[in-house]
Every structure is written in C-alpha cells, then in structure tokens.
Amino acid sequence: MIARRAGLTVFVVVLSSCLLFANNAGRFKGESLRGLHGAFVTVHYSGKPHSEAGLTETQLASEVSLRLQIAGLKVLTEPEWKKTAGRPYLYVNIIDTGLLGKGQKAMGYVYTCTLDLMQETSLARNPRSIIDACTWSRGATIAVPSNDLGQVRVLVGDLASEFAAAVRAANLPRRETASYRSLEKLLFGSYIPLCAF
Length: 197
Fold this sequence. Notes:
Blueprint: H1 2-21, E1 38-46, H2 57-70, E2 74-75, H3 78-83, E3 89-100, E4 106-122, E5 130-145, H4 150-171, H5 174-188, E6 195-196
Parallel strand pairs: 1-2, 1-3
Antiparallel strand pairs: 3-4, 4-5, 5-6
Helix pairs in contact: 2-4, 4-5
C-alpha cells in the first residue's frame, strides 16, 4: 500500500512538473546568446545536501563550471561579471522532494533542476528601465532512489552542457558545434530524465 502511494506521488509530481514547464522548451531563441562568451554561475539547492553524491551548492557549481569551461565558455568571477555588458549569470535551481517509505524513511527523491540564463535587458516601452530577465531556460525532473543520487549531478551537468551547446550554436559555425557535441557525449555519457522542459 505504501509503495503504491509513493508511486502515485511520483507520478503526480512528474506529471505536474511536465505540464507546468512544457511550454518553456522552445520559448527562448538563440538570438539572446549571440555574442555571449561567458557567464557567472550561481546555484540554489533546496533540500538536504548529500555531499557524498556531489549534491551541495559548491559541488554543483563546480560541475556546471567544468562543463562550461570544457565547451570553451568563460566562467566569470564576480568582479568580471560586474564589468561585463548585460551581466549574464546562469542561475541553477535544484529542488528535491523526498519519497517516504516504511517508517517515514526516505526511499528516494524527485529532483527538479532548472538552468536559467539571466541578463540585463531594457523594456521596449521604456528603454531606460534596465531589468534582469531570463533569456534562456532548460530544466528536467528526475526520480532517483536514495542509493543513486549521483544521477542528479549528472543531470545538472548535462543541462549545463546543453546551455554551452546552445551558446556555441549561436556563435560558431555548425561544423564546430557538431564536433563539440560528439566530444561531450564521449566524455560524459547521458541520463534519461523523466521530464525535460
């Protein structure tokens, strides 16, 4: 009975995440990535840190930074970011929801991970008003057992690689972008998300 209830909970969480975020998949175009050569990285992790699985804000920021650097993108320091036109930063948000089993012990987790590129933009109706706006966004939801939380770090890294590929596609000839994707797949493999948005 408890396993059935937990399965139903996972299904409802995943379905609602998919429905809520599905419209974002094609919302942002590569035009906002043209001329972008780097970004500041900030991570917000809501949940219990699992350092043994690489799930702390510092470890996740390192994973994202590594993926960006491998792709040839500069990870900006805070002073560099403040001097960069548009002040681009990659906001990584991870939220976990525990799946409780017998005795209220966590038998697994559902993680929702999003990466949003935030940049300063001006309003069309008032060009002097400068605001932060999300100009590129991707995310996924994944359910993992308690003994395999490392999948979440792989998911976050893969989303960062997708961002890097989008930046490269907006700034490089197609031939170079294809060879980068082949190298990245060889180095990191892939995961199977429950829901991508």
